[in-house]
Amino acid sequence: MAAAARRVRPRATIAACRRWAIIVGVRAAGAERPLPNRLRSSSRLGRPLTDVISLLLVDDEQLIVHMLEDALKDAGYAAVIAANGGTAIAALSDAENSLEGLITDIRLGAGPDGWEIARHARELKPGFPVVYMTGDSSHEWSARGVPNSVVVSKPFAPAQIVTAISGLLNDVATRLSDSGG
Q: Core-most of 1, 8, 62, 77, by most CB within 10 Å?
């Protein structure tokens, strides 16, 4: 009973609701063991439940990176961080990375921009989930964005990004299960 009286002090409002719902859900299901350090991903893509989905997060603004990294971690994802286009393309091309989605700002300074990073990702893996973040380029998305991607305009709540990438990952899983793959 001591565990039930313990108060959870979350860091952010959105994460608080998500974290509290998860704790309540696990406790309500009667789990007696402590909560795992990270949430487990679905096995819909043929992965064991212990694997975590890794996403590439590309942004040159550290505050946004930290905010989104926390939100993605709270949602059960692992984030590989790239601060510029060159690093992002190298991470995508690295055969050791098991990246399953991309969240990228569009304007990244010198070097490849978010549009180019997404095209590179799709050349490597068709159907790769892509979420664009932008403060000024959303009007270019229909002409420059990859098909079946999502654009989120700044300012945004971290939950919008988590919802967008989760929806795209679920779409990929549904297409794979429908095709028998």
A: 77
